[in-house]
Structure formats: C-alpha cells, structure tokens
C-alpha cells in the first residue's frame, strides 16, 4: 500500500510513509537462541564494544550477505522508481495522453468535477503503468529473499485495496489543491501543503479503526501475564490504553511488528502474531517500550509538524520548477497554467524528483525519532538483551552495519549496529539491575 500511495501521488504518500514509519517497527525473526547469547555475553567481563560485536557476530556470513544484498538493492530501487515515475510522466505529457484524458472530462460544466474525473482516470492509468514495477518490487523481489508469505492473488488483493484508498483520497486532495491554485494563485503552494498535511493527520487518525483492518484482522490480546505486563508498562508511562490488540501479520510475512497507532480517541497498542510466536516476553517488552516511547514523546504530532515544514519547502520548490518548465515547454506539453489539470503528470514528476533528492532529510527526520524511541524503550522496559536480540532480528531485511553516510542517507531507523550498541551502553550503566 505504501508504495502505491507514494508512486501515485507523492504529496499524500510522504505523509503516509512518515506516519507509518513512526508508528510501526518491524523485525524479522532470526534463527538465534536469545538465552544462549545473553549468557555468553554476560560470561565475559562487560565491555560495550565487544558485547556489540558479539551480538553482530551471531549473524552468519551468508545471512549478512543476503541482508546486505536485499537492503542495498533498495538504494537502487529508489533511483529506478524515480526514473520510472519520470518515464510515466513523459508518456502522459509527450504522447498527448494527458490532453486525451482532459478532452472527454471537459464535457462536465463544473471545473471541480472535471478535475475529479481527470484525477480518478490519472490514478487508475498510473496504477496500470506502474504495475510491472510494483509486481517486481512488492511480490517477486520479496519472495526471492523469502520475506513474503503472500500468494500472488493475496498480494494483488492488497494492492487493489491500496488503489481504492488512493483513488478516493487522492482524487479529493487533487480537487482541493486545484481549487487552491485557482483561488490563491501565487500562494497556492502554501495551501497545497496545508491540505496535504490535514489529510495526512486525518489518515493517521482513522488508520487504526478504518484502514488497518482492511489489511489485517485485529482482536483483543488474550488475557494473561503478557497483557497484564504490557498494560502495566503503559500505565507506568501515562498511556491511557485500556486494551492491547493483536493482528494476523503472519499472512503477509514472518516479520515481528508492533505499534502504538492513531492519536486522540483512536490511540491503540497493537502487536502482531509473529511477535507473540517468535519472541520472549523480555523481547516483547523491549519492543513495546520503544512503541510507547513514540506515544509519550508525541512523535505523531511532532512528525506532522516537521512534515508540514518539509511539505511547504517541497511545494515551494515544485512550484518554482513547474513555472520554469511551463514557460519553456508549456505549449509542447499542452499545459496552459499551473491550475490546468493537464499539468498534473508534470507536477507529480517534479514532486517525485524533489522527494528523491530530499530522501536523506525525510529519513533523518524519522530516524531521529526512532533513536529517541529506542532510548525511551530501554529505560522503560529495562531489557537491553531483549532489545539487542530484536535489533538483530531486523537484519534479515535491513543491512546491519552500514557506513556512516550510508545510514544518514538511506536509513529511516538506526542501523542494527547502532541500536545494539545503544542497548549495550545502557546495560553497561545498569549492570547491577540486569538479570
Ligand atoms: Zn519506532
């Protein structure tokens, strides 16, 4: 769903990616025995660096090579996705496709209705053109690395649900942004950013109740010690959660995952069945501590605020570039002004390129919050070895030990090495408290 949203309409997609990244942390279960590792680390005199190395060395060279290949392939996909989006934009603009869509919708008298229909047709056609890339990325590649449990039919069904959500939300956003273009004229980009952030907040608010259940089944976690401990951890950190939910993520993959999603009245704590099946209570508490950190530190609100500033800059840049292109190629592309819906493909191409260039900025915004949540989680759950083990589980789909700039540019979470090192540093300062 994330990819479809991002590629079909970058403005809305960015908000979605940001809020999802803040709210959800996934890890892949690795075939290591946590208890054995913990006791091996504890047997030697405690040294943060060597304890970190010890955890990192639990990955075999083959596991590390596979994980590196998968994650580094993602760097290239960023570039290919951008170029692919440019190619699709070129198809719309240079073949006259954009004009051909505009012609029949012009029969509607009202310009908003015209824009609505153009938007729906544009989103559906883009989905068709993006389909080969989405199949490769979302289905073939995930299966090649054994990271997906979905059959093609099930994958397609989820992709179509994402398309339906995108068609409804995307076309409404488009109509509103084009109203802003006509009314506010030169200052439209400020309104455009405002409209997108408002929809982003709305999507984050309704996601736990209306959107997530479209992909997974949620039910209250069974009564027992684990639920009692999670709710106790929540109360100890002033989180007003009265229930904990579990969802059937195992149908999609074996990744363990938990989140504190929504805000205001829709706030809820959810953990997936993989986490319950594959992790010890100490590891689950480590994960929940991290997620609660997002809630306590108001990361959703701060993230929305940061994204708002980021979007204003993005919209301003895109507006500048669009006007530049309009003056040079407007006639060739059949675009009369920025408020002309025929220019939508160019607008999307420019947003895609600018977002690509700003990838290190958006990743760093999210990664900073994730680092804060890690620190909160360590202090709240007090399970450094549980945390380190889960950090190692991430390595099946995230390169464990990147170079400094590699992490700055490509990582929306801290690297496994840094997370384990933080956990071991915390442990070194709390040796007497650790079991
Ligand atoms: Zn997180």
What does this protein structure show overall?
This protein has 435 residues and is mainly alpha-helical. It has helices at 2-8, 10-23, 34-43, 48-56, 61-94, 97-105, 111-144, 152-184, 188-211, 225-236, 273-278, 281-296, 299-333, 344-357, 359-381, 384-393, 404-410, 416-429, and strands at residues 24-28, 218-220, 244-247, 255-261, 268-272. The protein has a five-stranded mixed beta sheet with strand order 1-4-5-3-2, with helices on both faces. α1 packs parallel to α8, α12 (281-296) crosses α15 and α15 (359-381) packs parallel to α18 (416-429). Residues 25, 290, 294, 370, 373 line the site of zinc ion.
- The structural class is mainly alpha
End-to-end separation in angstroms reads 42 Å
Ligand names: zinc ion
Q: How many H/I helices? A: 18
Low-pLDDT ranges: 1-33
Provide the succession of SSEs.
HHEHHHHHHHEHEEEHHHHHHHH
Overall structural domain count: 1
How many strands appear in the DSSP assignment?
5
Mass-distribution shape: elongated
Work out the strand percent.
Answer: 5-15%
With strands numbered from the N-terminus, the spatial order across the biggest sheet is: 1-4-5-3-2
State the share of residues found in helices, binned by percent. Answer: over 70%
Output mean pLDDT.
88
Largest sheet descriptor: 5 strands, mixed
Computed Rg: 23 Å
């Amino acid at each position: 769903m994330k990819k479809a949203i991002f590629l079909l309409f970058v403005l809305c997609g960015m908000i979605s990616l940001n809020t999802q990244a803040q709210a959800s942390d996934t890890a892949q279960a690795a075939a290591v025995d946590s208890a054995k590792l913990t006791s091996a680390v504890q047997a030697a005199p405690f040294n943060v660096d060597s304890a970190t190395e010890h955890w990192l060395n639990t990955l075999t060279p083959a596991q590390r090579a596979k994980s590196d290949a998968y994650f580094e392939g993602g760097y290239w996909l960023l570039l290919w996705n951008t170029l692919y989006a440019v190619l699709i934009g070129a198809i719309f603009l240079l073949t006259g496709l954009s004009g051909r869509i505009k012609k029949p919708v012009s029969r509607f008298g009202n310009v908003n209705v015209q824009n609505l229909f153009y938007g729906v047709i544009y989103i559906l056609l883009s989905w068709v053109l993006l389909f080969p890339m989405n199949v490769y990325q979302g289905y073939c590649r995930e299966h090649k690395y054994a990271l997906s449990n979905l059959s093609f039919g099930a994958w397609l069904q989820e992709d179509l649900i994402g398309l339906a959500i995108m068609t409804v939300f995307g076309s409404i956003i488009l109509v509103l942004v084009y109203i802003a273009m006509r009314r506010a004229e030169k200052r439209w980009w400020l309104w455009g950013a405002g409209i997108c952030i408002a929809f982003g907040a709305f999507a984050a608010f309704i996601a736990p109740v209306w959107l997530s259940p479209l992909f997974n089944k949620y039910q209250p976690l069974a009564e027992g010690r684990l639920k009692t401990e999670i709710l106790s951890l929540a109360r100890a950190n002033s989180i007003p959660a009265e229930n904990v939910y579990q969802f059937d993520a195992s149908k999609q993959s074996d990744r363990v995952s938990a989140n504190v999603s929504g805000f205001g009245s829709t706030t809820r704590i959810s953990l997936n069945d993989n986490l319950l099946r594959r992790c010890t209570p100490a590891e689950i508490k480590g994960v929940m501590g991290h997620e609660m950190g997002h809630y306590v530190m108001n990361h959703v609100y701060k993230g929305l605020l940061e994204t708002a500033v980021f979007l204003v800059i993005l919209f301003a840049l895109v507006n500048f570039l669009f006007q530049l292109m309009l003056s040079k190629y407007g006639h060739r592309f059949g675009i009369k002004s920025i408020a002309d819906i025929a220019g939508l493909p160019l607008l999307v191409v420019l947003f895609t390129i600018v977002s690509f260039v700003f990838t290190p900025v958006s990743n760093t915004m999210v990664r900073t919050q994730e680092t804060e949540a890690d620190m909160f989680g360590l202090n709240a759950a007090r399970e450094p070895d549980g945390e380190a083990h889960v950090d190692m589980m991430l390595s099946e789909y995230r390169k464990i030990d990147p170079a400094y700039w590699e992490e700055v540019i490509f990582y929306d979470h801290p690297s496994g090495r840094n997370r384990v090192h933080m956990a071991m540093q915390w442990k070194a300062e709390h040796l007497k408290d650790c079991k």
